[in-house]
């Protein structure tokens, strides 16, 4: 009898567990913005560059100035890895791209 009651309680717990689980938090543009900024700031290669980050409907736009094209690529790659990012656009320009006068 005890085994039957234990089995019934276990079955109830297994059935109700998914109902008690919370929905994962919704990923908003603000959440993505914060995470991209944090990841850029913590990156050892590009952390010193003050890139601007804007997000609209999961699409990240990075802007600012970098010294090399590899830094731009790195910033785009860091942004792409953030959960919820659908695409990354970069308007980051190279420091000396305007040429010398």
CATH C-level class of the domain at 29-94 is: Alpha Beta
| Strand content range | 15-25%
**Strand and helix order:** HHEEEHEE
Total number of helices = 3
Please give the share of residues in helix. 40-55%
Q: Label the CATH architecture of the domain at 29-94.
A: 2-Layer Sandwich
Which outline best applies?
A: elongated
Distance between the termini: 92 Å
Low-confidence stretches: none
Secondary-structure-based class equals alpha/beta
> In CATH terms, what is the fold-level topology of the domain at 29-94?
Histidine-containing Protein, Chain: A
- The average pLDDT value, as a whole number, equals 85
Please tell me how large the radius of gyration is.
23 Å
- Strand order in space, largest sheet: 1-2-4
Count of strand segments: 5
**Main sheet summary:** 3 strands, mixed
Describe, in plain words, how this protein is organized in 3D.
- With 101 residues, the protein is of the alpha/beta class.
- The protein has a domain of 66 residues: Histidine-containing Protein, Chain: A (2-Layer Sandwich).
- It is 45% helix and 18% strand.
- It is elongated and about 85 Å long.
